[in-house]
Amino acid sequence: MMSENPSKIGYEIIQTIGVLSESGTWKKELNIVQWGDNIAKYDIRTWNADHTKAGKGVTLSVEELKSLRDLINSIEL
Fold first, then answer.
1. Residues contacting 75, CB < 8 A, separation 6+
2. Residue 1's pLDDT is what?
3. R_g over Cα of the chain
4. Distances from the Cα of 53 to the Cα of 8, 65, 67, angstroms
5. Helix, coil or strand: residue 68
6. What is d(CA 48, CA 40) in angstroms, rounded to the nearest whole number?
7. Rounded to whole angstroms, how far apart are CA atoms 26 and 24?
8. 3-state DSSP call for residue 22?
């Protein structure tokens, strides 16, 4: 879905990978998102139920996501 509000940057969720957590009507998700005319990246942020509102988050390239995976795998939980 491409956002329609012209005062905000457009986005399209290319692929939903999964939900990390839920809090009320908000879900923290890992998705592949294209922001504006930029290339699609992995994106972790909170979204409302119909993906019309987004919270603060982080976008990661494939290389950054691999580095994050390696860092997480090195942590003893």
1. none
2. 53
3. 13
4. 11, 24, 28
5. helix
6. 20
7. 6
8. strand
Taking the C-alpha atoms of residue 56 and residue 75, their distance in angstroms, rounded to an integer, is: 25
CA distance 53 to 61: 22
Q: How far apart are CA 14 and CA 3, in angstroms?
A: 13
CA distance 64 to 44: 12
Mark out the alpha helices in the chain (DSSP H runs): 62-74
Q: For residue range 14-55, list pLDDT tens digits in order.
A: 999 999 999 999 999 999 999 999 999 999 999 999 999 999
What does the pLDDT read at residue 9?
84
Measured CA to CA, the distance from residue 1 to residue 53 in angstroms comes to 12
Place of tokens 């399209």: 12
